[in-house]
Design a protein that fits this description.
The chain is of the alpha+beta class. It has three helices and seven strands; from the N terminus they run ββββαββααβ. The chain folds into two domains: 39 residues, N-terminal domain of TfIIb (Single Sheet); 98 residues, K homology (KH) domain (GMP Synthetase, Chain A, domain 3). A four-stranded antiparallel β-sheet has the order 1-2-3-4, with no helix packed on it. It has a three-stranded mixed β-sheet with strand order 5-6-7, covered by helices on one side. The N and C termini lie far apart (48 Å).
């Protein structure tokens, strides 16, 4: 039993290869718990003054970074690059007026490893952006998304 009363504020989708299932429950104030069909939970907070967790928009920003990073790591490993770390730093711009959606997102990838080829890193970032990252491809219809990368040798 949870120590708080929750109200379900989203609908369930039937899960298949082309649909997903999730729920978002109101906890208190502007705090919500999202739960995926796989049972993973994440806390979100819409209170910009006294935030206890990432806002939904911060989650979108981190989601595009995570989605692209999964692709970049996978592509670099398949190219037999000696990568030991990948970090993506994200910057964004939003509209001033409501609705305050993103207008620009920049992803800067930092790949750490030994003898990583800049050609392979640039190819991995491009493939993610143009072909594989579902989150970025979904957003690019309304958001200007740009990329850059650097290699840190260890």
């Amino acid at each position: 039993m949870q120590p708080w009363n929750c109200v379900i504020v989203s609908a369930y989708l039937i899960e298949s290869n082309s649909t997903m299932k999730a729920s978002v429950s109101w906890v208190a104030n502007e705090t919500f718990i999202g739960e995926s069909a796989s049972g993973h939970q994440v806390i979100m907070d819409g209170n910009s003054q006294d935030s206890k967790a990432p806002s939904p928009m911060e989650m979108v920003l981190m989601s595009v970074g995570a989605c692209s990073s999964v692709d970049v790591v996978s592509i670099l490993k398949k190219a037999r690059q000696d990568v030991v770390g990948v970090k993506v730093e994200l910057t964004s711009e939003r509209r001033d007026d409501a609705p305050r959606y993103f207008t620009k997102i920049h992803l800067h990838f930092i790949a750490t490893g030994t003898d990583i080829s800049s050609k392979h890193l640039e190819r991995a970032v491009s493939l993610s952006a143009e072909k594989y990252c579902s989150v970025a491809l979904m957003l690019e219809k309304n958001v200007e998304i740009t990329h850059s990368s650097e290699i840190v040798a260890v």
